[in-house]
Amino acid sequence: xxxxxxxxxxLVQAGGSLxxxxxxxxxxxxxxxxxxxxxxxxxxxxxxAIITSGGRTNYAxxxxxxxxxxxxxxxxxxxxxxxSLKPEDTGTYYCNAVISRPRENDYWGQGTQVTxxx
Length: 118
Description:
The protein is an all-beta fold. It contains no helices and 11 strands.
């Protein structure tokens, strides 16, 4: 059994910051890419940022320069530091990880709400 548990969402004013965390637990052999996705009401889920086990990162154009993804492999945790937040960043943020047990599977967290007021 593997769980991804997110924390750190909330309500913030435009221009503010939030830091999301996602910890993976359970029977884990290794974790490959970890990422954050978000879904706004009425829209499809979209990739926000992704980080490989070696630390290579990729970001959606809309968040480049404002968001930073990082991970602590020893803690099986991925973070998303979100600065200069905008109302259009509002949505449910989901953590994703490709986990080997050793068979690889794709896992999702339950989601954490981020609301940015104007």
